[in-house]
Amino acid sequence: MSDRHVLHPEVGKTVVSEFARLLNWPMVEDVERNRDENVDGLTEWELPNEISFFYCEDSDFGIPYFAFTGPHQRAVAPLVAQAQAALTPWKLDELFRKYDETNNDQELAETTLLVAIAAPNILHEGVFSRICTSMNSENENVRWVGVWSTTYTGYQEFLPHIQRMCESDPVDWVKRRAQSVLAAFNQVDGDQ
Fold first, then answer.
1. Range 124-141 burial, b when 16+ CB lie within 10 A, else e
2. For every residue of the chain, which 3-state class applies, written as one string?
3. What is the C-alpha to C-alpha distance for residues 177 and 143, in angstroms, rounded to an integer?
4. CB under 8 Å to 22, separation ≥6 — which residues?
5. By C-alpha distance, which of 186, 129, 108, 176 is closest to 154?
6. Integer Cα distance of 31 and 23 in angstroms
7. pLDDT for res 59
8. Local mean pLDDT, 10-residue blocks, the chain (192 residues)
9. Mean pLDDT for the chain?
10. I need a surface site. Which of 60, 171, 182, 191 has the fewest CB within 10 A?
């Protein structure tokens, strides 16, 4: 899968669907987001050469993003560039600036999620360091979001930090979230 590209709130499913329609990409799946049932919103368009275009809204927070799948990176790169030009997703450096400039815990938590969803498939130090900072915040809500955000990246490098939170976070519900995240990482690792 290509990297995920986080969209601005005003660029939702309608705008993305119109983009795909103009390119004559046939829709093959459309699942509505259902937070109560923990179902991500997912719309898929099928393109030639075994390439698919996805619009997603994560079930928990409704954050919109797109991604492509295909036989190899070279096959999807021109399509990613075309979608980026038309849909103008957040750039990672813009999200880093937003994260670095905030002094509001609620905005910091929200931006942590955006950074995590936009994380490249391979370890990116800027993503890693910001999520670690959130995991070490004095604010328990920011720590909860920080540890939850690690699940979007899949970066195994977070495991020692998650383990530390499991053992020593002073807030029980944050510690329980860290334990569930650690279990999820272990399950994925065990399935590979």
1. bebbbebbeebbebeebe
2. CCCCEECCCCCCHHHHHHHHHHCCCCEEEEECCECCCCECEEEEEEECCCEEEEEEECCCCCCEEEEEECCCHHHHHHHHHHHHHHHCCCCHHHHHHHHHHCCCHHHHHHHHHHHHHCCCCCCCHHHHHHHHHHHCCCCHHHHHHHHHHHHHHCCHHHHHHHHHHHHHCCCHHHHHHHHHHHHHHHHHHHHC
3. 10
4. none
5. 186
6. 21
7. 86
8. 91 95 95 91 94 93 94 92 97 98 96 97 96 98 97 95 97 97 82 38
9. 94
10. 191
pTM: 0.91
Sign of the torsion formed by the C-alpha atoms of 174, 144, 125 and 12: positive
Tokens of 104: 């509001």
Q: Rounded distance, CA 90 to CA 11, Å?
A: 11
- Residue 187 has a pLDDT of 84
- Give me the pLDDT at residue 191, please: 44
The count of residues in the chain is 192
Displacement of CA 10 from its chain's centroid (Å): 17
Between β-strands 5-6 and 41-47, what pairing exists: parallel, antiparallel or unpaired? Answer: unpaired
Q: Scanning the structure block, which residue is given the tokens 């075994």? A: 50
In this prediction, residue 189 carries a pLDDT of: 62
Measured CA to CA, the distance from residue 104 to residue 98 in angstroms comes to: 11
Round to whole Å and give the CA distance between 98 and 145.
Answer: 16
| pLDDT (0 to 100) of residue 122 | 93
